Amino acid sequence: MKQKDFHIYLTEQERTQVIGALIELKNSLIAQGRYTDAVDDILIKLTKARKKRLAVHYI
Length: 59
Fold this sequence. Notes:
Elements: H1 12-32, H2 37-48
């Protein structure tokens, strides 16, 4: 089965907040002694993601 791709467009402030929230989640998982592999994968994808400028047109 083919996996779906998802695209999310964030402002720089939103991107910073998402990264901060993921780091907090990772820290809480470490404190609980649980695995952080999934959070690590998402953080890597988010930090390596290409930044794209979009023009937003309001009607």
